[in-house]
Design a protein that fits this description.
Radius of gyration of chain A: 21 Å
Strand content of chain A: 25-35%
Number of helices of chain A: 9
Oligomer: homodimer
Structural class of chain A: alpha+beta
Largest interface: A-B, 63 and 63 residues
CATH superfamily of the largest domain in chain A: Fumarylacetoacetase-like, C-terminal domain
Shape of chain A: globular
Largest sheet of chain A: 8 strands, mixed
């Protein structure tokens, strides 16, 4: 495929990608767009120029500040819109009105792409679960249920923010080592978690279940996800009902939703599952995705050091299995719900997806390029996550999710 | 106060109450109303007849299928509307248009009163936490953090339903006693949890905290809450990240939101807290509420047996403390968020708020009036919760939340 637009060859937003997002150009009018190279296809303008037919309908749809209604139309429609824009971008010559339909991506402001209903966080990397288990429960690292259940829990959707939003270091209760009375303090163990999240594209009714083989029909697309964590708050609060204030002060996502269709060429088999899962979780074929991931840490006024290289393919439990499990009891899902993978760690030390693991609970400081070291995140540090899939010339990427920690 | 309407003296919906809800009268037009005796004040009709001024504004506001926008106007407005209706109901004579403004409550269909954003479930009864702890962790019933933290976790908002909605018994993974391989099965330990929930009336920004002394300004009102639970699914899945599929197949609420203002006469001191909470949780005055609670179980085609009498005043942690804790890390809240108390058990066996506690994990069957017994809920059983506060002639009640378990 070849477009008349000038798209840098290393762009995440190639003609094969065309992810959806919500942007504005400083006019305070958030609207739907699709990223292509350094540009955005303004879908309101595209509708206005008749690209999709039914002008009024599509103009109104894309002029909304979230994509929920568009996504709810279902894959036949959302895929048709994506293919239509692809065709338009591949016309033999620059089409009339191109300049009215394209916006400058570099100067646009991005918003949360959907109104998130419920947010669920899974725990699907066996390397991460084992690493954390070794630190929190040395005698019992991987709990007996882990290889049977795609373990997950409910998180807070109100505090999910988009790339670039600063995150304030949380205060809370912390139990100092060796003491039995907690103190109130700013977190001293501020961390990131490298995750991917999918956005639900099709709703179910209460009582309905989703068969694992059909689960991907319910997934619209993916974003990068940083599940900011305050390890000391988490450690004191998490028994017996799970993480709460150690997590819900903020989570960050990348602004462009990469569709499952764009990621199709990058499907791979996941790790062998042993024991074999129960029937309702049993899948065939390639259900994982080969998506390279990296995390950079930039101290205030200093250059970035990439501190983690990982890959989404490492996940033990696939998104299809997560969704089949989530609904096997009849729990209903809604368009715009977000489900994150849990920290994606790989087998090697440089692939661990959190500071907790990289510094092994603070015992092994990480060396940065400017000569400084880190065990956990310091005030002023910026964490930036990137993700991309590539096969020959075909590159489909996520851009980035970044956030600076403020004291 | 005396109204020209005939309100039964034992009605939960006295002239002192006037709770808000969303109803329809079979016309498929859900709209806002206030309960009074066996009637509903139709707020759209009341606005139409000029009761509140600004006719168009209030008609449009109350014609919505949820109360979020109304609640977001803030207590000065919502209290003014409530007082205005109270005054109208206490006019010396039946006012003109009364019959157009009143609807029959007994034949109305009730809806969820708000669009729920995030839902949080606390664990604030020391009797419940101790009882459950004894069964799940005999060596360690009340965990060390419990007396320091109003422990809570995030739940699923999509599956919260209104009074009268049947609940399907969930399937899921269960670990049979003495085995190490789970099976897939319908839950064999289906339970209720007697809770109260409050609805957030005022939003905060990410990073903002709510001082405990001001927390009640952020609470619009309360409903009864049944946190249906599948104990066997919960037990296998809950470590280390907390309950998930054992809870998220459904929760039920009563349809009428009783305002904090209506509950003011029933404020009481809570249990003494020992050790003294950290500063951000320290309160003075009466922060608990004296609300009688009961749970009835009706087998299919048989009469109800009341199996639990409890009271909201037993809660160790108050709503103000829950909300101060929830936001102390900067977590933001939104209008319509729902926060439940956790099971409200009292000190005596007949006040335990779940079958798990009443039957002591199935070891002590409960005797019903029809001669049958129960350890957990059977298919066809209906669970009904009721709540009311009373002082002399002043009664302020919640009506009920009921649900039948289907196989």
């Amino acid at each position: 495929m070849k477009t008349w637009l000038n798209v840098p060859s290393d762009s995440d937003f190639s003609i094969y990608n065309l992810p959806f997002g919500i942007f504005d150009t400083g006019d305070g009018q958030p609207r739907a767009g699709m990223a292509i190279g350094d540009h955005i296809v303004d879908l309101v303008a595209a509708a206005e120029h008749g690209l999709f037919g039914k002008k009024r309908f599509y103009k109104k749809l894309f002029a909304q500040p979230v994509l929920n209604e568009f996504i709810a139309l279902g894959k036949p429609t959302t895929n048709r819109i994506r293919r239509r824009v692809q065709t338009w971008l591949c016309l033999p010559d620059t089409p009339e009105h191109a300049s009215q339909i394209l916006a400058d991506r570099r100067s646009a402001r991005m918003h949360l792409p959907v109104r998130i209903g419920d947010y669920t966080d899974f725990y699907s990397s066996i390397e991460h679960a084992t690493n954390v288990g070794k630190m929190f429960r040395p005698d019992n690292p991987l709990l007996p249920n882990w290889r049977w259940i795609p373990v997950g829990y409910h998180g807070r959707s109100s505090s999910i923010v988009v790339d670039g939003t600063p995150i304030r270091r949380p205060h809370g209760q912390i139990l100092p080592p060796g003491q039995d009375t907690p103190v109130f303090s700013a977190s001293r163990r501020m961390d990131f978690e490298l995750e991917m999240a999918f956005i639900v594209g099709k709703e179910t009714a209460l009582g309905e279940t989703i068969p694992v083989e059909k689960a991907e029909e319910y997934i619209f697309g993916l974003v990068l996800f940083n599940d900011w964590s305050a390890r000391d708050i988490q450690r004191w609060e998490y028994v017996p009902l799970g993480p709460f204030l150690g997590k819900n002060f903020g989570s960050s996502i990348s602004p462009w939703i990469v569709t499952l269709e764009a990621l199709k060429p990058f499907r791979v088999k996941g790790p062998k599952q042993n024991p074999a899962p129960l029937d309702y979780l049993r899948t065939t074929g390639s259900r994982n995705y080969d998506i390279e991931l990296e995390v950079g840490l930039s101290p205030q006024n200093s250059n970035e050091t990439v501190i983690c290289h990982s890959n989404m393919r490492y996940l033990y439990w696939s998104m299809a299995q997560q969704l089949a499990h989530h609904t096997v009891n009849g729990c209903n899902i809604k368009v715009g719900d977000m489900m994150a993978s849990g920290t994606i760690s790989g087998p090697t030390k440089d692939s661990f997806g959190s500071m907790l693991e990289l510094s092994w609970s603070g015992q092994q400081p990480i060396q940065l390029q400017d000569g400084s070291t880190r065990t956990f995140i310091q005030d002023g540090d910026t964490i930036t996550m990137r993700g991309w899939a590539q096969k020959g010339d075909v590159r489909v990427g996520f851009g980035q999710v970044g956030g600076t920690v403020l004291g």
